[in-house]
Amino acid sequence: FKGGDTCEYLLSSGRFLGEKVWQPHSCMMHKYKNSEAKNCLIDKHIVFIGDSRIRQLFYSFIKLINPQVKEEGNKHGNIHFEDKSASIKVDFLWYPEVNGSMRQCIKSWTEGSVAKPHIIVAGAATWSIKIHNGSNEALTQYKINITSIAPLLEKLAKSSDVYWVLQDPVYEDMLSDSRKMITNEKIDAYNEAAIRILNSSSRNSKAKVKLFSVSKLIARETIMKSADGLHLPESSRDTNAMILMNVYCNKIMKPIDGSCCQPQPPLTLIQKLAFCFFTFSIIGYLIISLIHRNNFRKNKSCTDLESGEEKKPVISTPNVSTLEMLLHSFCKLGLIMTYFYLCDRANLFMKENKFYTHSSFFIPIVYILVLGVFYTENTKETKVLNREQTDEWKGWMQLVILIYHISGASTFLPVYMHVRVLVAAYLFQTGYGHFSYFWIKGDFGVYRVCQVLFRLNFLVVVLCIVMDRPYQFYYFVPLVTVWFVIIYATLAVWPQIVQKKANGHCLWHLGLLLKLVCLLTCIYFLSYSQGAFEKIFSFWPLSKFFELNGNVYEWWFRWKLDRYVVFHGMLFAFIYLALQKRQMISEGKGDPLFSSRVSNVLLFISVVSFLTYSIWASSCKNKTECNELHPSVSVVQILAFILIRNIPGYVRSVYSSFFAWFGRISLELFICQYHIWLAADTKGVLVLIPGFPMFNVLVSTFIFVCVAHEISQITNDLAQVVVPKDGSALLKRLLCLAGFFSGLLLFSAAQEQSRH
């Protein structure tokens, strides 16, 4: 990858994904909405000058501002459009030939008395070929005329954005008799003349006339769908208009999924401090490693020549093991974060838009399922939702979610709805797992809470600093963190009811159920009171953690989408553990969970429920309606899966070690995909090896999985140091962390103030 300006690639190269989706070379194109287009072009004057092909581009462009515009008016005359709400003026000036009239029009803008347009889009040639019957004299005159216009366009390019649209090829078989002289050979000759002459006097200057040559590539693929062989079909000119909008607006609007024409964001103060910290960690680790290596050489075992025995020198273990482990972890983390930054913040690697096809989603799904079944092993224990089984569950769900993201399957509603159930299932496990721990162990100590919070949030906090992203951007981690705190608060608040206490008297079970009812009531109230929810999370400093784009709406939406499923997980854990305590279920190896008759009935109901949900999800009309019902019905498929997976004794006694391995690093996989597997914050796909899509996916996936595994190990190592079991040491660490986050908030506030 040569680097340089991605605008050049956007204007000159690319390919079609499918039939209608245009993929620029090396970067991503944003699809602008009307409101975004207006915000970008507010108080702007845009002029299209040329022939009927430029008029087509003009209409496609103004439809991005106002889709209600109809192609009316004098075809061979000037057309004016104005959007008064945003003070946008867009004019089409009919100059079908590059001649003295066009030159005079352009010259008027170079004189001080006339206001210059902010954007000028010009181009013409086919009329010259047609009127002069494709003569060589006409081409010679075209060269003379464009030579006289070129200095004027280059002068305008110093203060305005000037684009010269090269001529698209024609479909010669469809041309009418009056246009038969317009051949692709002639068009190529006119384009060569324009390319050679324009910018010839300002080759080393930044102010250049931008050649809009990508339209030729688009036309080659689509001109056969033209109505007359000359003019592009509507979808192709709409693509050209969208490219034009990206070229001008991306640097202003800075859309996440519009990497074309966006400059590399400057490093923030927090990012610079993080860079210094990781640099010192790497240097410190190298120094300690060299010192240890030298000490090892000095104390190397030697042979006693007199006795013939090997002396074992007493090597004092200096008190630097913890420091060395910290530096080693931060050294690795620093190198990994550098890779993150290079992948998704620096303009080093290419990024491409996603493009969904059924095969791109379902073929990898079948492939990983076959692999998962191949690696089947016996579980160590045969309890319902034992550790191996939950790891397996997390693993295959995470792999499906990863394939869903990279294939862009969110555009296919049935897949979207089933993936929403997978996310809900993660939260169900959160409710089930944490409730079970607190209920059985009765451990509400600070150490347990800090361990969980550290493991959940460490990677995300580092990425917020390095990648300059808000905490809420990684929405799943705030979600599981808040639900963990809610579960803890529900069970830890007086009266603390745990299994040991409840076994003494059945009234304690009623007390716990009352707590769960109170929790459900609070969830129900907040889900239907957006104002109350937003007030709670809009208080400083909570707002700093849960705001995205200046408000907490995204956080409310994410929380509301799966609001009941954690409660369902807690309730399921309570019922299951109560049944287990009373020995009402059989969890022996190979034994069905219940009696044969009950097991068969429950299995039948589970299969029917599972399929019923899938049929409903596949018949959804739109996301909004389905999302409204999802919180209440997602638990149906989750419970059905648990029963199908656990009622038969044999099925409960085996698990897939392949899926379980991925399950143990599922959180890291979910977070890392944002920047080093996908690109542009999950909106696109990272391209390490251009031109070979399958090979690129293999290489980037291998690196991505290795990095996720390494980060998981780093997190576990650091958790032992940052969250010690000793109470006084833990208190000191907590004070240090409080100071760290206070400093982070202050730096963040200073950054925002400087940006404004």
From TrEMBL:
<feature type="transmembrane region" description="Helical">
    <location>
        <begin position="600"/>
        <end position="617"/>
    </location>
</feature>
<dbReference type="GO" id="GO:0005975">
    <property type="term" value="P:carbohydrate metabolic process"/>
</dbReference>
<feature type="domain" description="Cas1p 10 TM acyl transferase">
    <location>
        <begin position="253"/>
        <end position="734"/>
    </location>
</feature>
<feature type="transmembrane region" description="Helical">
    <location>
        <begin position="659"/>
        <end position="680"/>
    </location>
</feature>
<dbReference type="InterPro" id="IPR012419">
    <property type="entry name" value="Cas1_AcylTrans_dom"/>
</dbReference>
<protein>
    <recommendedName>
        <fullName>N-acetylneuraminate (7)9-O-acetyltransferase</fullName>
        <ecNumber>2.3.1.45</ecNumber>
    </recommendedName>
</protein>
<dbReference type="GO" id="GO:0000139">
    <property type="term" value="C:Golgi membrane"/>
</dbReference>
<feature type="transmembrane region" description="Helical">
    <location>
        <begin position="355"/>
        <end position="375"/>
    </location>
</feature>
<feature type="domain" description="NXPE C-terminal">
    <location>
        <begin position="22"/>
        <end position="92"/>
    </location>
</feature>
<feature type="transmembrane region" description="Helical">
    <location>
        <begin position="269"/>
        <end position="291"/>
    </location>
</feature>
<feature type="transmembrane region" description="Helical">
    <location>
        <begin position="452"/>
        <end position="468"/>
    </location>
</feature>
<keyword id="KW-0333">Golgi apparatus</keyword>
<comment type="similarity">
    <text>Belongs to the PC-esterase family. CASD1 subfamily.</text>
</comment>
<keyword id="KW-1133">Transmembrane helix</keyword>
<dbReference type="InterPro" id="IPR057106">
    <property type="entry name" value="NXPE4_C"/>
</dbReference>
<feature type="transmembrane region" description="Helical">
    <location>
        <begin position="396"/>
        <end position="417"/>
    </location>
</feature>
<feature type="transmembrane region" description="Helical">
    <location>
        <begin position="474"/>
        <end position="494"/>
    </location>
</feature>
<keyword id="KW-0472">Membrane</keyword>
<dbReference type="Pfam" id="PF24536">
    <property type="entry name" value="NXPE4_C"/>
</dbReference>
<feature type="transmembrane region" description="Helical">
    <location>
        <begin position="730"/>
        <end position="750"/>
    </location>
</feature>
<keyword id="KW-0812">Transmembrane</keyword>
<dbReference type="Pfam" id="PF07779">
    <property type="entry name" value="Cas1_AcylT"/>
</dbReference>
<keyword id="KW-0325">Glycoprotein</keyword>
<keyword id="KW-0808">Transferase</keyword>
<feature type="transmembrane region" description="Helical">
    <location>
        <begin position="506"/>
        <end position="526"/>
    </location>
</feature>
<feature type="transmembrane region" description="Helical">
    <location>
        <begin position="325"/>
        <end position="343"/>
    </location>
</feature>
<keyword id="KW-0012">Acyltransferase</keyword>
<dbReference type="GO" id="GO:0047186">
    <property type="term" value="F:N-acetylneuraminate 9-O-acetyltransferase activity"/>
</dbReference>
<feature type="transmembrane region" description="Helical">
    <location>
        <begin position="686"/>
        <end position="709"/>
    </location>
</feature>
<feature type="transmembrane region" description="Helical">
    <location>
        <begin position="561"/>
        <end position="579"/>
    </location>
</feature>
